[in-house]
Amino acid sequence: MPRFEPKNPDYRANAADTFERQRAMKTLGISIARMEPGEVDLVMGYSPDFTQQHGFVHAGIITAGLDNACGIAAFTLMPVDTGILTVEFKTNLLAPAKGQRFVFRAVVVKPGRTLTVCDARAFAEDNGAETLVATMTGTLMALPMRN
């Protein structure tokens, strides 16, 4: 996997700030576990409040974690005074999302001036074992901030 150089020397602080301002992530209990240029791992504990009718974590919750992981991974490579928005994603649900904890790992595939493409994987952790439950390919847009 290629190593990327961030355009913003304060990428960690800026990405963490962007993440912390997302109330949806707070509501879901999702937090940043690891962050490097072009990479991020987010984690979320299991909650019965996030389940669907069969007791698995709902696909919408898993998709939200994957989308956000892609966004933060892409944002680590964006310049100062830039925001980020998702413009497209494709999710594959591979296994029932059941576990004690969920990890959302995203990596930048191709950074661009305007559009960045990322891949992400969601894993369910249960008694020390990881199961791949979903994948995502996402396209994110750099949004120049206007004063």
Q: Could you provide a short overview of the structure?
A:
The chain is of the alpha+beta class and 147 residues long.
Structural description of this entry:
By secondary structure, this protein is α+β, with helices and mostly antiparallel strands. 22% of the residues lie in helices and 43% in strands. The protein is built from three helices and six strands, in the order H-H-E-E-H-E-E-E-E. The chain has helices spanning 11-20, 23-28, 59-75, and strands spanning 31-36, 39-45, 82-93, 101-110, 115-126, 129-144. The chain has a six-stranded antiparallel beta sheet with strand order 1-2-4-5-6-3. It is elongated, with a radius of gyration of 15 Å. The termini are far apart. 33% of the residues are buried.
Topology (elements, then pairings):
Layout: H1 11-20, H2 23-28, E1 31-36, E2 39-45, H3 59-75, E3 82-93, E4 101-110, E5 115-126, E6 129-144
Antiparallel strand pairs: 1-2, 2-4, 3-6, 4-5, 5-6
